[in-house]
UniProtKB/TrEMBL annotation:
PANTHER family in the cross-refs: 1-ACYL-SN-GLYCEROL-3-PHOSPHATE ACYLTRANSFERASE (PTHR10434:SF11)
Pathway assignment: Lipid metabolism
MF GO annotations: 1-acylglycerol-3-phosphate O-acyltransferase activity
Entries under InterPro entries matching the protein: Plipid/glycerol_acylTrfase
Provenance organism: Chitinophaga silvisoli
Protein name: 1-acyl-sn-glycerol-3-phosphate acyltransferase
Domain named Phospholipid/glycerol acyltransferase: residues: 79-193
Highest taxon of source: Bacteria
Alphabetical list of SMART domains matching this protein: PlsC
Alphabetized UniProt keyword annotations: Acyltransferase, Membrane, Transferase, Transmembrane, Transmembrane helix
Transmembrane segments: 12-33, 45-65
Length: 247
């Protein structure tokens, strides 16, 4: 049976790749033009094209997104979204399901990918985790972004979770920025991305559902850096408990 399904899987992967690149090529000229509008204004314009790309690709390849609101935002104040990270599909999903405008923190290595790297460079705040000075620059840029009224998105686990645990340990960055800027954190869960793209290998991509759970925000009003460990643990516990409830 597996031998019969394998050719179908590769036809599906080829189709998904063509749609992925095709829509990207379609929006690339507009992203190039928007890149001249500046870091904030141009970046916001770019995200509306990326929203179109994500909203086109996912249904085209049979991946259907379901939103579950435990909290539905009514205001437009910036948030720090903290999201579990299990596969590379998370980033493609984020631009289609998070409230615009926002900027994610992303690995600087992704800028080296042909074509995609140009878009990535203008869409994320890149971070080189191997360089302390580069990490500090990224944090300063994220803080400046929030102060311009733009939300940010951080995967606090830092990298994809390849374990059987709901979450791996969190880094401090998102919580430090939240306290310094007094910006509320909103935990968000991506439930099925690991099933749609197991082990982040494109040859394992498959159609199906992707559920997004928007959890209530966590206020940091009045907190200082002394509260950081407790805040980080609070958010971890909230997300872990909710993830376990869906297993």
């Amino acid at each position: 049976m597996k031998l019969l399904l394998k050719p179908i899987q590769w036809v599906y992967i080829l189709y998904a790749s063509i749609i992925f690149v095709g829509v990207m090529l379609l929006i690339l000229p507009f992203i190039f033009l928007a890149s001249f509008l500046g870091r904030i204004r141009g970046g916001n314009v770019i995200y509306y094209f990326l929203w179109f790309w994500s909203r086109t690709w996912f249904p085209a390849v049979g991946i259907f997104v379901k939103r579950i609101y435990k909290y539905d935002r009514k205001d437009k104040t910036p948030f720090i979204y903290v999201v579990n990270h299990s596969t590379y599909l998370d980033a493609a999903l984020a631009v289609g399901v998070m409230r615009l405008p926002f900027r994610p923190l992303g690995k600087i290595e992704m800028q080296k990918i042909p074509l995609f790297g140009f878009i990535y460079k203008h869409a994320v705040v890149p971070v080189d985790r191997s360089d302390a000075k580069a990490r500090s620059r990224s944090v300063r840029e994220l803080i400046a972004t929030i102060r311009e009224g733009v939300s940010i998105l951080i995967f606090p686990e830092g990298t994809t979770n390849d374990t059987d645990k709901p979450l791996t340990s969190f880094h401090n960055g998102a919580f430090r920025i939240a306290i310094e800027t007094q910006t509320a954190l909103q935990p968000v869960l991506y439930l099925d991305c690991k099933d749609r793209l197991p082990r982040s290998k494109v040859q394992h991509l498959n159609p199906g559902r992707c559920r997004i759970v928007y959890l209530p925000p966590v206020s940091v009003a009045g907190m200082t850096m002394e509260d950081l460990p407790a805040l980080k643990q609070q958010v971890f516990d909230i997300m872990e408990k909710e993830l376990l409830s869906y297993r």
